[in-house]
Amino acid sequence: MKYLASVTTLAYRADKCAGCGRCVEVCPQGVFEIREKKAMITDRDLCMECGACAKNCDFGAISVNSGVGCAAAIINSMIKGGEPTCGCSDTGGSGNCC
Amino acid sequence: MEMLKFVKRVTPPFVTGTVMTPSGAAQRVKTTWSRQDRWGMIRSRISAFRMAYTVEPGIYAVGTPTKDSEVFVTANYKLTFDILRRSLTQIDAWVLVLDTKSINVWCAAGKGTFGTDELVYRIGAVKLDSVVEHRRIILPQLGAVGVSVSEVQKRTGFRVHFGPVDARDIPAYLAMGRKKTKEMSTMRFNILDRLVLTPMEINPAMKKYPWFALAVLVLFGLQPSGILFSSIWHTCVTFLLLGLLAVLAGAFVTPVLLPFVPFRSFAVKGWIVGMAAVAGAVLIFDPVPLHNILLLASVYVFFPALSSYIALQFTGSTTFTGMSGVKKELKIGIPLYATATVSTLIMVGVYKLKEWEVL
């Protein structure tokens, strides 16, 4: 299943890639593949912006504006300000999250 | 004088004996589930019980682990811990439980509680470097959002390996020499995975239902002489039942049938399912109050929009929706939902004024 097309903030710079394969190891959506000792993006629309790749890329080749893809969290952040977080448990709210 | 209190530390039912480690006794856990564990899983899937469903952070033993055994790191949400230990049948291993405030790995990693700092702290607290001789730990792949491999290695000497997404693949992962197939590293989200999530979609929506019911009763009950229900009972019941139907369409049918409902947008999917449900109900039952064109129009404007809004909430439970996409949906959706609500109120208002023969 794929979500909306062409919305992800995922950015990848092949010139910085060392081909270590860490992004392939951590991505839960299979966005990356190693081909000819470099990572490459298979399908950008698969990206869910979790940020695992960017956090674990030691060469700064990947960046993504990561965050939770959760309507409740985003609506909350619109009302209360701040970044959307998976914070249902903190607020003792409905617990409708993940 | 202060009273001395002796608190008897209760041994959890999933524990079977202890194993000595350099940092003290580690509890040995069973790899089977008791009735209590199964009941706990059900309760945490349907209610806020999950918020307090927890295990003590620290090191645990499975089977008879040695200094060469693998170390599996997990969260201290009891259901997560249970799924891991159940997957370690016939494996001798150590389990390192992080304090994630009883939140599962994925959500805790997103928040940073299943993160580099807690992992580094916990490795030190249990003296992991003297529990095992090797320097590798296996983390669930979904923990990667919160854990930086190179930082953990720098600060502890331990090399993080991200194992499979699903704990059930651990035996195969070990058999392959800590290698994953593509299936092991991508998230599964089949119809059953989605079905078990629906109670926690319906539950919060139904908590707001009484407010909707109150609004319906007040709106239709309002008469020049006060609030009267006897004459408008039929109308109220029609709207209340359609409200229930909209909740089911958005919180149950849309998530379960997700890949079969056309379009990628959750708002559109929810609207389609809501529209089909409302149209079906209106055609089959042909409720007398909806013979009024204003009420009929308001039903078609409001309830599919409600389903759409509720379906959008499911983005928080899926494995593939990202923040930019949900923001885009909300940016377009919220003004439409507001418009639908206001126009519904206007139509019902005009209907009431006609009823009172003001118009």
Shape of chain A: elongated
Tell me what the CATH architecture of one domain in chain A is: 2-Layer Sandwich
What gross morphology of chain B would you assign? Answer: elongated
> Considering DSSP H and I runs of 4 or more, what fraction of the residues of chain B is helical?
40-55%
The termini of chain A sit apart by 18 Å
Kindly state the number of beta strands of chain B: 9
Number of strands of chain A: 4
Strand order of the largest sheet of chain A: 1-4
Helix and strand content put the structural class of chain A at alpha+beta
Main sheet makeup of chain A: 2 strands, antiparallel
Q: Order of SSEs of chain A, N→C?
A: EHEEHEHH
Amino-to-carboxy terminus distance of chain B: 80 Å
Residue runs with pLDDT of under 50 for 5 or more positions of chain A: 89-96
Low-confidence stretches of chain B: none
Rg over C-alpha atoms of chain A, rounded to the nearest angstrom: 16 Å
Order of helices and strands of chain B: EEHEEHEHHHEHEHHHEEHHHH
Describe this structure in words.
The complex is a heterodimer of chains A (98) and B (359). Chain A is an alpha+beta fold and 98 residues long. Chain A has a domain of 53 residues: 2-Layer Sandwich (Alpha-Beta Plaits). Helices cover 24% and strands 12% of the residues of chain A. In chain A, a hairpin with a 2-residue loop joins strand 2 and strand 3. The longest helix of chain A has 10 residues. The radius of gyration of chain A is 16 Å and the shape is elongated. The C terminus of chain A is likely disordered. Chain B is an alpha/beta fold and 359 residues long. Chain B folds into 2 domains: 174 residues, Rossmann fold, CATH 3.40.50.11600; 164 residues, no CATH class. Chain B contains 13 helices and 9 strands. In chain B, strands 1-2-3-5-4 form a 5-stranded mixed beta sheet, with helices on both faces. Chain B has a two-stranded parallel ribbon with strand order 6-7. In chain B, strands 8-9 form a two-stranded antiparallel ribbon. In chain B, strand 8 and strand 9 form a beta hairpin. In chain B, helix 4 runs parallel beside helix 6. The radius of gyration of chain B is 27 Å and the shape is elongated. The mean pLDDT of chain B is 93. Classes of the chains: A alpha+beta (98), B alpha/beta (359). The interface between A and B is large, with 49 and 56 residues.
